Structures are given as C-alpha cells and as structure tokens.
C-alpha cells in the first residue's frame, strides 16, 4: 500500500465519518485530499521511503476565518489528532494537535503561500518565471478526495497549466542550455581531455532536455529524485529516457563511448527540433538548438517577458 492508497483508505474509514458527524456545519467549506511535497504524494514511495514522514494521514483544507473561524479550526485539529493511531499496520507519527509537516488541518491560503508564494495562486510573470518546476509540481500533485467549497480546486486549476508566454520562455532557456552544454561544450571538453567536465556538460544537457520534454507535454518535472521515473510515465518517452540515461552512465574516457554519446546528443536534439516544429513553436530550419531557442523566444507575445534574458528561468 503506497502513501496515496493509505491516505485515501484512512480518510474513508475514519476521517469521513468524523467530519460528517462532528463537523457537518463547516463541511460545505472543506476540501480533503493528499497533496504536497514527498514521494508519497506522487505515488512513488516504496519500502525505503517509509523511514520518514510515512504515516496514515490526509489534508483537510480550510478557507479563511470569515467562513471557518479559529475556534472551529482548532476543534477540527483536535479531532484529527484523536483519529486512530494506526491503520494498515502503519503507525501515525507523534505530533501536536496543530498538525505535522504534511498532513492535518491546513488553511488553503497557507498551503499555496508555502507552495508557490501566493495565497490565492495568482502569480506575476516574474513569479512564474522564477518558480522551480518541482515547486509547481508539488502544488498540483496527489489527489483531492472532495472539495465542497471549490476554493482549493479553483486555485489548483490556475496552476496546472502555466501561461503560454511563461512556457515559451522556459522552453527557450532550456533549449539554449541543451545547445551550449550538449551540442557545443560536451565535445570540446572531450577534446580538451576533460572527461569530468564533459560529464557535467552531459548532466546539464540531460536536465534541460528533460525539462523541455515535460514542458512540451504540459507537465511539471518533479524534484530530481523522481524526475526519471516521472519521465518514463509520459507518453512516448521510453526511448528518449533510455538515451538520456546512457548519457549519464557512459564513460567519457572511452573514445568510442564518447563519440556514441555525442551522436546520441544530436539524435535527441533532432527529435526535439521535430517536436518543436510539429507544434509550430519554431521557425528555424536547422539542427542548431540555439537558433531554435531564440526562435521560440520570438514567439512570446508579452514584450516585457520576450525581452528578458533568455536564461531567466535557468538556475533553479
């Protein structure tokens, strides 16, 4: 049983009856789910993951105090704390009534403020550009069991798909990193006799290529620990994932392997160009990803965003 299954079962058996019998007056204003940071919110947890932050629990999201006041919120926190201490053979952590790190009673505004820096999910262009992919992924992952009031879901929906200009800016920056690290610097590092630097170039290329893949499928890449697993779950990425994996593991000190790695980089670049052209995101006609990066940037409608440094979204 993974964390999502554990949370849903625990809520259905114990949380739901508690809310319906003791908090029917505020139930119309509540949302319940299992969302946030940690492998369990992606369904990626395993036996190793259970060494920390793994317990039966779920999130109860409240609107602001004008709808559910602090007195009723505290009563709900106490009731949540009194739920059974074990479920499915898994014990709950010893936490205070005011909640733990990831589960319990949480104001919707507090959740989103912590997740993306905005209590209502409204982000400026600057905020959209600066937020790491993994932060956005954590804000919209997991599962909502219900949302009677609709506030949590409404904010969630605004964050699931980033504005098109922001997406283009992120694409452009990562395409440029792919060009610089893979198409240009990898081979130069090999020729300079710097296999370690070449591997750093590979890592930069792989990270940027993965982000481009997620962006083209309108998804956020999660924290690096789960990035390859999430990549393999995307439609049509099995072969690409294996190529990227080879770039990380191949030995640059072996000339034949290094040459194969460069060929692989160019294959991925070519596939990326095709994907951009199929979506009509670039007007460039060549294999140079740098030219495609600037062509994508040129498609940005907002002149302020378009004229920002093309690498503004890089360096997360």
Structure description:
- Helix 5 (133-140) packs antiparallel against helix 6 and helix 7 packs antiparallel against helix 11 (255-278).
- The longest helix is centred in the middle third of the chain and has 28 residues, at 164-191.
- This protein has helices spanning 3-22, 70-81, 108-116, 125-130, 133-140, 151-160, 164-191, 195-216, 227-233, 238-249, 255-278, 289-298, 303-306; strands spanning 31-34, 59-62, 86-87, 90-91, 104-107, 143-147.
- It is elongated, with a radius of gyration of 23 Å.
- With 316 residues, the protein is an alpha+beta fold.
- The strands form two sheets. It has a four-stranded mixed beta sheet with strand order 5-2-1-6, with helices on both faces.
- Helix content is 54%, strand content 7%.
- The chain is built from 13 helices and six strands.
- The protein has two domains: 3-160, no CATH class; 164-306.
Q: Main traits of this protein?
A:
2 domains, 6 strands, 316 residues, two-stranded antiparallel sheet, 54% helix, 4-stranded mixed sheet
Short summary of the structure?
The chain has 316 residues and is α+β, with helices and mostly antiparallel strands.
Instruction: Give me the number of helical elements.
Output: 13
**C-alpha-based Rg, rounded:** 23 Å
In N-to-C order, the SSE pattern is HEEHEEEHHHEHHHHHHHH
Relative strand content: 5-15%
Give the tally of structural domains: 2
Specify the biggest β-sheet. 4 strands, mixed
How far apart are the termini?
33 Å
Form type: elongated
Helical proportion, percent range = 40-55%
Strand order of the largest sheet: 5-2-1-6
- Based on secondary structure, the structural category is alpha+beta
User: What is the strand tally?
Assistant: 6
Overall average pLDDT = 92
Low-confidence stretches: 96-100
